[in-house]
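Table 4 source record.
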Amino acid sequence: MSVAMLNMYISFAGILFMVLAIGLILLSRHKLKGIAAGIVALFAYIFMFLSGIIIIYIVFSGPTG
């Protein structure tokens, strides 16, 4: 597998983490109450942080040919 394909799959993981984070944040704010909302929100923000790290890695890794 080439480096470019690997970077593409890594960026897909970052996009998936971002979509999961958005869904979990909406779920925790509008449907859940109490400690369950806090736990789900914690996971959401962890996914958001990981997606940010992945996107920064992909952007600053430079072009792959």
